[in-house]
Amino acid sequence: MGGHANGTEEIILDKRREEHIQHVFDGFCKRVLKNAANDYYDEIMRRSKHEVLLADCWNLPHTIDEYVLESAVYTVLGEDIRFTNSALINALDSLSEENRTIILATCVMGLPDREIAEHLKVVRRTLTYRKAKLLQELRRVLSDV
Question: pLDDT tens, position by position, for the chain (145 residues)?
């Protein structure tokens, strides 16, 4: 009978030890996730201090020349948008129609990603990712001009 009680104590100790290990592991996982989230938000904040939104550039003070050598009209979600800047026209012409719609709907029309994604029948996250890549590419192309 004494041996049987000893076995029960070992089982109870093993369960307690297992629960302790689970709690320690849970705590470790929570710390790792929290630190990863903090790192992600810190990176976003660091980048946002140096980024200039293309949409903000549209509102800068500017003059419009009276002569127009070249112009282009793009129809985006049923609205016509005219451009006269040849560098911008060339950059926009290099995009597919869907990518051009993403850029113009965001930067000119000011539509939120959710609404654009609905019009294009794509997932919002996919649209957000593509928009970020497109803006990066347009910045590179237009800065070379």
Answer: 445 557 677 777 788 888 888 999 889 989 999 999 999 999 989 888 877 777 666 666 766 666 656 788 899 989 999 888 888 888 899 999 999 999 999 988 899 999 999 999 999 999 999 999 999 988 888 887 6
Picking from 125, 109, 55, 107, the residue whose alpha carbon sits closest to that of residue 77 is 109
The answer for residues whose C-beta is within 8 angstroms of residue 33's C-beta and 6 or more apart is none
CA–CA separation, 103 and 83 (whole Å):
14
pTM for the whole structure: 0.51
Name 75's bridge partners: 80
Tokens 């004494």 belong to: 2
HEC states along the chain? CHHHHHHHHHHHHHHHHHHHHHHHHHHHHHHHHHHHHHHHHHHHHHHHCCCCCHHHHCCCCCCCCCCCCCCEEEEECCEEEEECCHHHHHHHHCCCHHHHHHHHHHHCCCCCHHHHHHHHCCCHHHHHHHHHHHHHHHHHHHHCC
